[in-house]
What we know:
single chain, alpha+beta, Alpha-Beta Plaits, 2 domains, 6 strands, 32% helix, elongated
Amino acid sequence: MPFGEIFGKLVDTLIGGPVVKPFPKEPVKVPPKWRGKPQYDSEDCTGCRQCERVCPPSAITIDDKKGDFFHYEIDYGVCIYCWYCIDACPTTALSGDDKSGLYVDTDRTKEKLNDGVPYVECPVCGSKILRPARTLVVRQFKKYTPETLVRASVCPKCRREKTPEEIEAGIEKYIEEHAVPRD
């Protein structure tokens, strides 16, 4: 490259300002088919752990040993944004944010998402189970209300071993004792 051309580019750069983009002051335009952060919705989580199993860098951890909650954590500092977890999710608990750019702070602990699903009591036998996912309750009962949530919270053991009449009697007793609002 001749000296004159190099000097011309140097002058253009000095007069025109910096060539780099002023990120994070101005948002970066995301390219088409951008894969942003996986978003977690605890209302739709069933606790199946498929997302944890398929995550290549093990950015998703699930701990069900911490008291009354099923703890779900995504470490965005480790996540490679492959969206395998979103593809593996049988409900809509995980979705992708493809509209915003990616910004990971230098302190990776700030980037962790820590949420969880509370355990509920089976209305028939009283055992602790994960709260049913909102999408599954709506699929079964066509609406999501406190009563339908109780009806969907019957544990698998009771569904196998009890008759429908026993299950219905247990649900009705639970609804009365706990003053669950009717539909």
